[in-house]
């Protein structure tokens, strides 16, 4: 199974006079790709543009050669661009399992009328999706929480549930927005281990926004650094994190102490 | 399945509750006992009380539609009183024109879904108060149409309903069973759908709308389904209501009716089908108890709304959960003390 490509060409996004992204060129093709940068660099806006939540002012977003600009956001979701959010977006009153099942919406072939009358096929599909959602939770070691209400599980679990839900959508490209933020070291290890396994199994093109440079340099095959809406460095993570321009963007200019 | 499932389930030990989710036996027992109680009720209650319980069932049905709209998709759509009136008038008129009542009911249910689509199409682009005002106006528009089309509806003068014949069975008892059949059918069908994929998606559109497109879900589609379902159920409830009341007047479907429906919904519990039933019992009880004192009815409704919103946001339906939680806590404390 070959991996899918997502290519941003001269992508610009502006809110009024505020230019958030300016001529961004990135090519996401297979493996785990890190997208980093200080707060306000435009990382999440980049995701929002890819997902169709904001309309770019210029440039194109090509999924396997097809331009996505102008496509409604739910159609972009249907084309297989899955994503997570900085703060997990789960339905509090539903169980963890039901939240994951939400992701499988586009997998169903039976309509709501068949569901209303409880046809055999509709019931079989519902069962298959329940089992698949449970198996996906099990990959993250979360099968024990499947019956818990989403509002009652800790943040770390909520974040992993959201990733599981995005995986259940059967994405061709997966966009993760700060999945490790707020997680303890043990939870990060568990999440990364499960995630890397799935990415390898499915040969899934995955982009990760993360502030932990140590983590991204260890797990990503490529890194792009955004600063004030522009790409300032790109390439091998181990080289990029030592780049003077990148260090300056994160920590500011070195000043001689008198 | 059109696409292969992304996760292999073969290597996972699948618990039975995942593959075959079942309702707890206690829940099944309570439902069966309640249904049995409702079936044998006419043996114990006199004519007037049977009428009152029938009214509770019709109100429950009307609130069921509103619950799908407000409780599941979170849209404050307030045209239900208009749809209730539409169903009452349209079914009665079609029946009088010679169409069998049950056929008229089905046609009106479908027509109301279509009108719900017309109401919903512009309304799904509105939020909060703007949606509330727009849908309230739409409901009022239906009522205005009923008043103006006096050639067929009798206008302000009212409309005597052609009564159904039940092959010699006592009319009140037959109507009661008709209401019971309707509510059981809708509770089962709507309950099944809301417990399934459609219900999950509607709840997601309600609470995490921003995230739904990334799962390939188009929120307007599900809001429209809610508008159509809600309109259709309210119209069907209205059709049965007309048979209970035997005489229709536009006054019955005024904006104040939507307030009564909201009281049923909020006092009973938004987002709970059983809550609609509890809310309807409360409203009918207050209406009958304070029949002679219209103004006190409104005070009771107003105060109960405030109390529920402030102290019991889940309504009467959430009391069961709260009591269960309190008992579990007490049992836990007792266990701790024993240890």
Written account of the structure:
The complex is a heterodimer of chains A (258) and B (339). Chain A is of the alpha/beta class. Chain A has helices at 43-50, 73-78, 96-102, 112-116, 120-139, 155-168, 185-202, 213-219, 237-240, 244-251, and strands at residues 5-15, 18-29, 32-36, 58-63, 66-67, 81-83, 173-177, 205-209, 222-227, 230-235. Chain A has two domains: 1-80 and 171-258, Rossmann fold (3-Layer(aba) Sandwich), CATH 3.40.50; 86-170, Rossmann fold (3-Layer(aba) Sandwich). In chain A, the strands form two sheets. In chain A, strands 6-7-8-3-9-10 form a six-stranded mixed beta sheet, sandwiched between helices. Chain B has 339 residues and is mostly helical. Chain B has a domain at 49-254. In chain B, 73% of the residues lie in helices and 1% in strands. Chain B has 14 helices and two strands. In chain B, strands 1-2 form a two-stranded antiparallel ribbon. The N and C termini of chain B lie far apart (53 Å). Classes of the chains: A alpha/beta (258), B mainly alpha (339). At the A-B interface, helix 2, strand 6, helix 3, helix 4 and helix 5 of A face helix 1, helix 8 and helix 9 of B.
- Termini of chain B, distance in Å? 53 Å
| Binned strand content of chain B | under 5%
Query: Strand arrangement, largest sheet of chain A?
Result: 6-7-8-3-9-10
Percent helix of chain A, as a range, is 25-40%
Gyration radius from CA atoms of chain B, angstroms = 22 Å
Count of separate DSSP helical elements of chain B: 14
The oligomeric status of these chains comes to heterodimer
Question: What number of domains of chain A?
Answer: 2
In the sheet with the most strands of chain B, the strands line up as 1-2
Extended strand count of chain B: 2
Could you say which structural class the secondary elements and strand pairing of chain A correspond to?
A: alpha/beta
CATH topology of the largest domain in chain A: Rossmann fold
Largest interchain contact: A-B, 58 and 41 residues
Alpha-carbon distance between the two ends of chain A: 59 Å
Shape of chain A: globular
Number of helices of chain A: 10
- Major pleated sheet of chain B: 2 strands, antiparallel
- Structural classification of chain B: mainly alpha
CATH class of the largest domain in chain A: Alpha Beta
């Amino acid at each position: 199974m070959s991996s899918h490509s997502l290519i941003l060409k001269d992508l610009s996004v502006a809110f009024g006079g505020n230019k958030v992204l300016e001529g961004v060129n990135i090519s996401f093709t297979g493996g785990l790709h890190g997208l980093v940068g200080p707060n306000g660099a435009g990382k999440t806006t980049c995701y929002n543009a890819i997902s169709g939540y904001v309309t770019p002012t210029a440039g194109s977003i090509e999924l396997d050669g097809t331009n996505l600009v102008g496509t409604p956001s739910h159609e972009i979701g249907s084309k297989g661009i899955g994503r997570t959010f900085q703060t997990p977006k789960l339905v509090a009153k539903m169980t963890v399992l039901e939240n994951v099942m939400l992701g499988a919406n586009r997998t169903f072939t039976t309509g709501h009328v068949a569901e209303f009358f409880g046809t055999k096929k509709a019931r079989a599909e519902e069962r298959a999706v329940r089992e698949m959602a449970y198996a996906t939770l099990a990959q993250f070691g979360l099968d024990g929480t499947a019956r818990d209400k989403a509002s009652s599980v800790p943040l770390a679990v909520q974040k992993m549930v959201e990733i599981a839900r995005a995986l259940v959508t059967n994405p061709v490209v997966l966009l993760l927005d700060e999945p490790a933020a707020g997680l303890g070291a043990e939870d990060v290890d568990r999440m990364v281990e499960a995630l890397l396994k799935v990415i390898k199994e499915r040969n899934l093109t995955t982009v990760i926004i993360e502030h932990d440079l140590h983590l991204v340099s260890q797990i990503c095959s490529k890194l792009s650094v955004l600063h004030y809406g522009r790409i300032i460095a790109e390439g091998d993570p181990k080289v990029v994190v030592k780049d003077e321009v990148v260090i300056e963007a994160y920590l500011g200019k070195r000043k001689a102490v008198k | 399945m059109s696409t292969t499932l992304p996760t292999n389930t073969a290597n996972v030990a699948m618990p039975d509750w995942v593959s075959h989710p079942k309702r707890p036996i206690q829940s099944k027992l309570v439902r069966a006992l309640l249904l049995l109680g409702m079936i044998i009720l006419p043996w114990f209650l006199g004519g007037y009380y049977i009428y009152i319980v029938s009214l509770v069932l019709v109100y429950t049905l009307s609130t069921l539609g509103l619950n799908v709209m407000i409780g599941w998709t979170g849209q404050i759509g307030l045209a239900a009183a208009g749809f209730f009136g539409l169903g009452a008038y349209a079914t009665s008129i079609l029946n009088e024109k010679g169409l069998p009542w049950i056929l008229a009911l089905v046609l009106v249910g479908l027509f109301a879904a279509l009108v719900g689509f017309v109401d919903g199409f512009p309304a799904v682009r509105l939020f909060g108060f703007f949606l509330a005002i727009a849908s309230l106006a739409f409901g009022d528009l239906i009522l205005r149409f009923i008043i103006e089309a006096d050639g067929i509806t009798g206008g302000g003068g009212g409309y005597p309903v052609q009564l159904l014949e039940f092959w010699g069975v006592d009319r009140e008892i037959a109507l009661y069973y008709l209401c019971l059949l309707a509510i059981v059918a809708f509770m089962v069908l709507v309950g099944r759908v809301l417990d399934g994929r459609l219900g999950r998606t509607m709840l997601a559109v309600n609470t995490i709308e921003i995230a739904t497109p990334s799962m390939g879900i188009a929120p307007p589609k599900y809001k429209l389904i809610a508008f159509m379902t809600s309109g259709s159920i309210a119209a069907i409830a209205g059709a049965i209501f007309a048979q209970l009341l035997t005489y229709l007047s536009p006054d019955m479907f005024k904006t104040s009716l939507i307030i009564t429906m909201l009281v049923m919904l909020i006092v009973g519990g938004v987002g709970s089908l059983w809550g609609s039933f509890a809310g309807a019992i409360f409203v009918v009880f207050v209406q009958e108890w304070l029949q002679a004192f219209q103004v006190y009815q409104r005070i009771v409704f107003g105060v109960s709304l405030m109390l529920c919103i402030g102290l019991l946001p889940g309504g009467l339906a959430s009391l069961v959960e709260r009591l269960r939680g309190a008992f579990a806590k007490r049992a836990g404390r007792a266990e701790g003390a024993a240890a």
